[in-house]
Amino acid sequence: MKTALITGASSGIGLELAKIHASRGGNLVIVARNKVKLDELKVQLEKEFGINVVVIEKDLAIPNAAHEVFEETESLGIQIDYLINNAGFGLYGKFEHSDWVQESNMIQVNITALTQFSKLYLPGMIARKSGKIMNVASTAAFVPGPTMAVYCATKPYVLSFSEALNNEVSSHGITVTALCPGATASGFSKTAQADKSALFSKTKLASSYDVAKFGYTAMLKGKQVAIHGFMNQLLAFMVRFIPRSLVVKVSRKVIDK
Ligand SMILES: NC(=O)c1ccc[n+]([C@@H]2O[C@H](COP(=O)([O-])OP(=O)(O)OC[C@H]3O[C@@H](n4cnc5c(N)ncnc54)[C@H](OP(=O)(O)O)[C@@H]3O)[C@@H](O)[C@H]2O)c1
């Protein structure tokens, strides 16, 4: 059975992805900072599905954290068949007032760790001519986000990197999927201090389970880009034909408190 490494499995979409993979009989390596939540999930999933779950407590904002995780799975002799780069967070507020340490950590988690994990686990997948990577991007990949400028700028990177990498590795039998959720009920809006933004308080949020199920299915099918929800798919399509300056103005209205 396939083993999946899922970052950010202590909450929201990542937690649901872990449950879905476990329900199919797959083993797991789950990574996040909150060890209590990861340990609870391990106990629950091992009991319910008779699988093995390895917990790795790691702060992915620390440079080279991905390498430490890789060394741990290597030393345990665990082969990673599915790499799911899900960990990420946002931050609400105008850039002139926002905190650099938080933003720099965000870039490290959302971009650098995700890229380094891919760099580390890909050679094994290529050698085996098999493997799947899923990177969690966002509908923010298609639209700049005033008042969440840095977060929204991290996601076009994830989309672009995933699409390009998928093209490079498909000849080895490996697929890379970029999952693009819209606003989703999870710990995200609280962490980002965006609870009161129109996006999270006035729109109907998708459930983390629905997004995870959609993404997991797309990953198994080897889809390059998976945009969750019809309205989000429409948005991603329509923005190609609307002047960029207008897109940014509308985006501001949607995100603003
Ligand atoms: N919710 C949305 O509206 C939405 C929309 C589009 C895209 N997304 C993306 O979906 C992904 C999952 O987010 P979510 O909505 O499920 O939010 P969430 O419930 O807040 O979960 C985020 C996960 O990332 C982990 N994480 C955050 N910082 C970390 C760090 N420094 N080191 C290790 N792990 C860290 C958290 O674990 P710990 O706190 O335990 O470390 C948690 O497990 C993110 O990439 C997010 O950008 C979310």
Task: Supply the key terms.
binds NADP nicotinamide-adenine-dinucleotide phosphate, globular, two-stranded parallel ribbon, alpha/beta, seven-stranded parallel β-sheet, 10 helices, 257 residues, Rossmann fold
How would you describe what is shown here?
The chain is α/β, with parallel strands linked by helices and 257 residues long. It has a single domain (3-255), classed as NAD(P)-binding Rossmann-like Domain (Rossmann fold), CATH 3.40.50. Helix content is 51%, strand content 16%. It has helices spanning 12-23, 35-49, 65-75, 100-128, 149-169, 188-191, 198-201, 208-221, 230-238, 244-255; strands at residues 3-7, 27-32, 53-57, 82-85, 131-136, 174-180, 184-185, 206-207, 225-227. It has a seven-stranded parallel β-sheet with strand order 3-2-1-4-5-6-9, sandwiched between helices. It has a two-stranded parallel ribbon with strand order 7-8. β5, α5 (149-169) and β6 form a beta-alpha-beta unit. α1 packs across α8 and α4 (100-128) runs parallel beside α5 (149-169). The longest helix has 29 residues, at 100-128. The model has no long low-confidence stretch (mean pLDDT 97). The site of NADP nicotinamide-adenine-dinucleotide phosphate has 29 residues, from α1 and α6.
Topology record:
Blueprint lengths: L2 E5 L4 H12 L3 E6 L2 H15 L3 E5 L7 H11 L6 E4 L14 H29 L2 E6 L12 H21 L4 E7 L3 E2 L2 H4 L6 H4 L4 E2 H14 L3 E3 L2 H9 L5 H12 L2
The structure holds NADP nicotinamide-adenine-dinucleotide phosphate (NAP).
